[in-house]
From TrEMBL:
The keyword Transferase applies. A motif (RDXXRA motif of the pArg binding pocket involved in allosteric regulation) lies at residues 334-339. The gene is mcsB. GO terms for molecular function: protein arginine kinase activity. Keywords: Allosteric enzyme, ATP-binding, Kinase, Nucleotide-binding, Transferase. Belongs to the ATP:guanido phosphotransferase family. It comes from Jeotgalibacillus marinus. This is Protein-arginine kinase.
């Protein structure tokens, strides 16, 4: 896998697959935060310490069976880093760092190991659909290999020590990306978001903390990492996610029964906007893509793959649009290119489904 492929391949290989409950759960992520006991944490370490951490991680990575490619942040352009953020392969925080900051990526992009982010190590595993236990198992396998080579900062009372106190303990952040248009249309999310807080969970936008919910997509993740085992954290999250899935399905059924023709009209209006618009802003595109995905799930729209939302939500982000253009684009030019790209993608899918050739 070359850098160019990481940047131009909009949909990671794992995203092209459908996992359990994939009509509502787009993806699952497990992230483990770890630090070396020999060096200061990234918020206060020296440039020399940062380089030493990077060198030790590189040596430890020789024992990982999966082939992973190393990308150094100081060797990437700002636009290239933005694309990696939009694909959820690195965090916005890592993109801002430069001194010895790096990421190790697997070919299928389901494994991402960030170096010198907020912590010395951030081990991330991504899976399609609802696969929290599977993702945790994979992350733990990688963690065990690295821990055998890399002395972690660990306290018998508090567990793994991290830069941010909210990660102390297991260092685990488990999250599920969910498409919840039914709950949004029936105005139930305003009730659900504070309710899940009682279980030590939080709902965030598509790019995590501080981001907004574009296209009715929410990340549901744990807030508590101390005083619970990794397995207990995942079980608690699974219980709540299963309840949200059931409520989203019920909301969709209610919408079909009470306003079926209006819902179908909304879906096809959005489909028409995506299919024929010449200029479209990112928020309108996200809203229309959400409506279109709902229409596919409900059977209103046929002949279009469900994974279209995953693909176009990334393809239409500013970084990707400019990457394809080969340089900076102003807001209006991005809106022009976004509309063009969506039209081309939908026409391509239609041609493939009907047995035509690629454009």
């Amino acid at each position: 896998m070359t850098l160019e492929k990481f940047l131009t391949q909009a949909v990671s290989s794992w995203m092209s697959e459908e996992g359990p409950d994939s009509e509502i759960v787009l993806s699952t992520r497990i992230r483990l935060a770890r630090n070396s006991k020999h060096y200061a944490f990234p918020t206060v370490f020296t440039e020399g310490e940062a380089k030493n951490v990077s060198a030790e991680v590189k040596k430890a990575m020789e024992h990982v069976e999966e082939p992973l490619e190393l990308l150094q942040m100081n060797e990437l352009k700002e636009l290239q880093k933005r694309v990696l953020v939009e694909k959820h392969l690195i965090s916005p925080n890592l993109a801002k760092n430069s001194t010895a900051a790096a990421v190790w990526l697997s070919e299928h992009e389901n494994i991402s190991i960030m170096v010198n982010e907020e912590d010395h190590l951030r081990i991330q595993c991504l899976y399609p659909g609802l696969q929290l236990k599977e993702a945790l198992e994979k992350a733990n396998q990688l963690d065990d290999v690295l821990e055998a080579q890399f002395d972690y900062a660990f306290d018998e009372k508090f567990g793994y020590l991290t830069t941010c106190p909210t990660n102390v303990g297991t260092g685990l952040r488990a999250s599920v990306m969910m498409h919840l248009p039914g709950l949004m249309m029936t105005h139930q999310m305003n009730r659900i978001i504070p309710a899940i807080g009682q279980f030590g969970l939080v709902a965030r936008g598509i790019y995590g903390e501080g981001s907004e919910s574009l296209g009715n997509i929410f990340q549901i993740s744990n807030q508590i990492t101390l005083g619970k085992s990794e397995e207990d954290i995942v079980e608690d999250l699974l219980r709540v996610v299963h309840q949200i899935i059931a409520q989203e399905k019920a909301a969709r059924e209610e919408l079909v029964q009470t306003s079926g023709i209006r819902l179908e009209d909304r879906v096809f209006r959005s489909y028409g906007v995506l299919r024929y618009s010449r200029v479209i802003e990112s928020k309108e595109a996200a809203k229309c893509l959400s409506d279109m995905r709902l229409g596919i799930d409900l059977g209103f729209i046929k002949d279009v793959p469900r994974t279209i939302l995953n693909q176009l939500m990334i393809l239409t982000q500013p970084g990707f649009l400019q990457q394809y253009a080969g340089g900076f684009l102003g807001p209006f030019d991005r809106d022009l290119r976004r509309a063009s790209l969506i039209r081309e993608r939908l026409e391509m899918d239609d041609s493939q489904y009907k047995g035509g050739t690629d454009l």
